[in-house]
Amino acid sequence: VCSVGWAVSHTLTVIENLPATWAKTWGWLLCLWAMWFYEPQAARCPSVVPSDPLGPFDTPAEQTVFSLFLSLEVVTFFGWVLYTQFYPYLVWRCRAPCRLRLCSRIRTSSRSAGWYSFRPSLLSFRRKHFQYAGETNALGKPHGCGVWREDSHHGEVLEGHWRHGLPVAPFVSRTFGSGAISVGLRIAYGTTRLEDLSSLSWRLRRTPGGALRYGVLGVECSVA
């Protein structure tokens, strides 16, 4: 009951990550049933020789319970595929100028000037809001110093530096729903390996003459 209550509450309030929420709920309920209600000895027929092993899910009732949970997990998995893979792919493939308005239902917010409202997912009925305040480039993308604010569960408040629409270190970010905080830091590096920093190699290869390559990287670290 507690698991179902948590899932229903999460569905009605957060309305995000629903397939993962319900997949975990079905798994927890199956584990609870197996630990507290599944009694193979009580289901044994008196005519069966006691030495004969009784395998799991041998009785019709057990098979029904297991089939029910398996069906729920399969339906949830297909829901996850449609929700997190197929729908974003369709949105990405759509090149129409109105795709943001049709898919995320983005429009100017009536809450205050400079804010926009949207629906985080297909199943969201409550609109959320976002805003960027700061420097931009010629295309209107965040570039320079600025602050991004979004009040959905997985939205964040990110203050720091931007480059052509993407955040770059240094910056500070706080997730709106959980309150988790991460910071972007710039660190110096030095290496004599031949491959690029984003490449992988099965063997060690050095630069010609062991020449040192160095530079500065941006990394994001969780701090709270």
Walk me through the structure:
- It is extended, with a radius of gyration of 26 Å.
- Helix 1 runs antiparallel to helix 2 (18-37) and helix 2 packs antiparallel against helix 3 (60-93).
- The protein has helices at 2-13, 18-37, 60-93, 99-103; strands at 107-108, 116-118, 128-136, 142-150, 156-163, 166-175, 181-191, 213-222.
- It is built from 4 helices and 8 strands; from the N terminus they run H-H-H-H-E-E-E-E-E-E-E-E.
- The protein has an 8-stranded antiparallel beta sheet, with no helix packed on it.
- Strand 6 and strand 7 form a beta hairpin.
Q: Any descriptors?
A:
alpha+beta; 4 helices; extended
List the helices and strands and how they pair.
Elements (H helix, E strand, L loop, with lengths): L1 H12 L4 H20 L22 H34 L5 H5 L3 E2 L7 E3 L9 E9 L5 E9 L5 E8 L2 E10 L5 E11 L21 E10 L2
Antiparallel strand pairs: 1-2, 2-3, 3-4, 4-5, 5-6, 6-7, 7-8
Question: Secondary-structure element order, as H and E?
Answer: HHHHEEEEEEEE
Number of strands: 8
Broad shape: extended
Task: Order the strands across the largest sheet as they lie in space.
Answer: 1-2-3-4-5-6-7-8
Q: How much strand content do the residues show? A: 25-35%
Evaluate the radius of gyration: 26 Å
Helix share of residues? 25-40%
Low-confidence parts lasting 5 or more residues at pLDDT below 50? Answer: none
> Structural class of the secondary elements?
alpha+beta
Largest sheet: 8 strands, antiparallel
Work out the helix count. 4
Mean pLDDT: 79
Give the N-to-C terminal Cα separation. Answer: 32 Å
